[in-house]
User: Which sequence fits this backbone?
């Protein structure tokens, strides 16, 4: 079992002058006062906000100077400032999936170079095993030094390079089996040394990436942003002095930590568990991998333990603990303290633990491209656990994947290759007080755009955006409906190309909470000659050939519902039908709302339909059963043993997906296994973990419902006899 913190303490080259030190550096302080540990409130805020302003200027520089529309239109990049010991001291409206794991990359830089860092050195990395996220997210770290060689506050940039080599254009392969297929892996290297660029390394990197002129342009944009930050940082030190700047940072980090700890201390102590799945295909058959989390609240701290999660597999469902930890942090921070600062102080109250070489703590040489999917699943399991103690603050499940789609080929108009990359946004989960937002970036995506503009795509690539609309019926039903996903269609105008997608939640849909229903899962297809062709491994495609006038169809999932759909105001359902958000059929089937021929609610028919729906819910008595409920080949999925009579009542077949509902809002999912010897028709066996998730004891009542979801074309993976 490995144990670490989201931001471990780092000790690269600690400054000889800092908080509590009597020596000066980097200019003469202009702030009055003799005690370096005391900063007046005005100066404190000016310094702290000044650091954030530097980050914002970095962002503006990158947007103005980058070559790739993924950066200047889609905002798929992030910036941050770090203190002398490698602690993150400032960020702005950045991508949580970038900046939260970024301290791990900074730590790796210090580990690798230690005292061998000098003025003018710039470190480049993207290695997911060494502080990166996935290979496309390329990080630039730019140490800043004073005249004595001490490390000062310094900048870092993490930007999505639309291609870093690998087996397909865009470097996103839904069916990779090792990291070498995903692109060029860059451990921390000095790309600039004492101010001189390492041309040999740059030449080697660019030779292994598609559209290298764009990649080099994006590199220069990141480097330029870091140099702008360096100038602003030096000016701050000159104005306020090292002692004041470092004291202000320390005070700010400490108060941020204190604020979050106060929120955590309001929670009841205890261990809160949840589990969910990622979609892995074993030889074309769905073999779900298990993500299990136990959140332990003790006083003013939280331990997040992924013990019991699936070992890593040769598929794109693995990522690092830095990424999984970012998901936990997003869930905790957004529910307990959404308005507080995000810096090293906010990381301190949360301790992470995970089994090494697991899907949440990947090791070489397993694929690591699923950083968005693993992060979002970590959000899901953390929210599922938190729902047991703060149900009023959580939502239905998010859409559940970053959904990166890529098309690549040759652009004859420009005489070069092109790579299209886009991640059409899905829906957010319903909340206690509101429906989920539709086609809107999830909380773990920060300020990233939901789509690229049609004008940018059509100007730069031989593609035509034919359709972009909300996807009817995609949001999970509930008293508060889940937000809708979108349907986006892209027509290929070039002679030929290839299409790839890496997603999740295409077979196992996002869940609802507090009785809310699941949303519709993701769906992708290619329409050729009027016929839509779906893929044998839903949501995971590698290098599918496309040709002129093929249309790539991308349908994102909605968010899970919140609360019993039968409690939704019938007039709200009617409004959804009129708006095209919900079909009349789903109004009847999902909400038991009956509309008459004129489209008005029929109150009496609706009342009767809802009464009938309530009486058909299936209830069972819980029976303690510690038989291992999991099966799979490389994956591990929970199974639910049902007697034939129970399965018939539920209208369930073998390997249908079901949900168990107890007092806590989040459901426990399991795949039906019909067995003659499954026991009493009125009882369901549950292990201790399952009973813990559902807050049930032996003899309690549990509700079981079947989830309507598309069965994978290749079926489910089963262990060999």
Assistant:
């Amino acid at each position: 079992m490995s144990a670490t913190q989201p931001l471990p303490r780092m000790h690269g080259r600690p400054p000889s002058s800092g908080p509590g030190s009597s020596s000066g550096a980097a200019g003469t302080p202009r702030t009055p006062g003799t005690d370096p540990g005391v900063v007046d409130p005005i100066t404190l805020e000016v310094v702290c906000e000044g650091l954030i302003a530097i980050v914002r200027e970095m962002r503006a520089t990158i947007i103005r100077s980058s070559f790739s529309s993924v950066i200047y239109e889609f905002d798929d990049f992030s910036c941050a400032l770090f203190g002398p010991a490698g602690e993150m001291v400032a960020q702005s409206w950045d991508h949580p999936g970038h900046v939260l794991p970024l301290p791990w990359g900074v730590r790796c830089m210090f580990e690798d170079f230690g005292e061998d860092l000098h003025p003018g050195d710039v470190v480049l990395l993207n290695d997911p095993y060494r502080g990166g996220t996935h290979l496309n997210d390329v990080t630039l770290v730019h140490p800043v030094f004073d005249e004595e060689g001490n490390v000062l506050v310094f900048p870092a940039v993490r930007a999505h390079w639309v291609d870093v080599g690998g087996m397909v254009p865009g470097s996103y392969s839904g069916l990779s089996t090792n990291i070498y297929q995903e692109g060029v892996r860059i451990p921390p290297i000095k790309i600039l040394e004492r101010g001189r660029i390492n041309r040999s390394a740059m030449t080697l990197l660019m030779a292994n990436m598609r559209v290298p002129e764009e990649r080099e342009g994006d590199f220069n944009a990141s480097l330029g942003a870091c140099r702008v930050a360096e100038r602003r940082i030096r000016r701050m030190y000159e104005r306020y002095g090292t002692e004041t700047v470092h004291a202000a940072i320390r005070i700010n980090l400490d108060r941020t930590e204190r604020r979050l700890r106060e929120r955590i201390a309001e929670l009841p102590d205890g261990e809160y568990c949840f589990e969910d799945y990622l979609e892995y295909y074993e030889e074309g058959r769905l073999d779900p991998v298990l993500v299990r989390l136990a959140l332990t609240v003790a006083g003013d701290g939280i331990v997040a333990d992924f013990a019991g999660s699936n070992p890593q597999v040769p598929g794109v469902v693995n990522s690092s603990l830095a990424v999984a930890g970012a998901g936990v942090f997003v869930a905790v921070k957004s529910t307990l303290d959404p308005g507080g600062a995000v810096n090293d102080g906010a990381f301190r109250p949360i301790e992470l633990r995970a089994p090494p070489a697991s899907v949440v703590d990947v090791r070489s040489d397993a694929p690591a491209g699923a950083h968005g999917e693993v992060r979002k699943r970590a959000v899901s399991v953390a929210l599922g656990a938190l729902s047991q103690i703060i149900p009023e603050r959580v939502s239905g499940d998010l859409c559940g994947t970053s959904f990166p789609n890529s098309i690549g080929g040759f652009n004859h108009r420009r005489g070069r290759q092109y790579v299209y990359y886009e991640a059409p946004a899905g829906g957010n989960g319903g909340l206690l007080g509101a429906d989920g937002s539709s086609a809107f970036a999830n909380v773990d995506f920060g300020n990233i755009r939901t789509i690229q503009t049609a004008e940018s795509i059509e100007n730069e690539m031989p593609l035509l955006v034919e359709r972009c609309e909300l996807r009817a019926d995609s949001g999970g039903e509930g008293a508060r409906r889940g937000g809708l996903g979108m349907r986006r269609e892209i027509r290929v105008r070039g002679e030929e190309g290839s299409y790839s997608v890496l997603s999740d939640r295409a077979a196992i849909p996002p869940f609802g909470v507090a009785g809310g229903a699941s949303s519709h899962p993701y769906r992708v297809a290619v329409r050729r000659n009027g016929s839509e062709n779906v893929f044998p491994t839903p949501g995971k495609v590698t290098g599918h050939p496309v040709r002129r006038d093929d249309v790539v169809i991308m349908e994102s999932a909605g968010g899970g519902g919140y609360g019993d759909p039968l409690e939704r105001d019938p007039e709200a359902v009617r409004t959804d039908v009129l708006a095209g958000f919900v079909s009349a059929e789903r109004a009847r089937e999902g909400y038991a709302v009956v509309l008459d021929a004129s489209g008005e609610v029929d109150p009496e028919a609706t009342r009767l339909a809802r009464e009938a729906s309530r009486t058909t819910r299936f209830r069972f008595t819980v029976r303690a059963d510690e038989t291992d409920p999991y099966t799979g080949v490389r994956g591990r999925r929970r199974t639910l043993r049902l007697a034939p009579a129970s399965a018939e009542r539920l209208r369930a077949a073998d390997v249908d997906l079901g949900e168990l509902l107890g007092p806590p809002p989040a459901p426990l999912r399991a795949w039906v296994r019909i067995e003659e010897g499954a026991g009493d028709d009125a009882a369901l066996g549950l292990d201790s973990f399952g009973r813990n998730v559902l807050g049930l004891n032996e003899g309690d009542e549990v509700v079981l419902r079947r989830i309507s979801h598309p069965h994978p074309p290749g079926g489910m993976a089963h262990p060999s006899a």
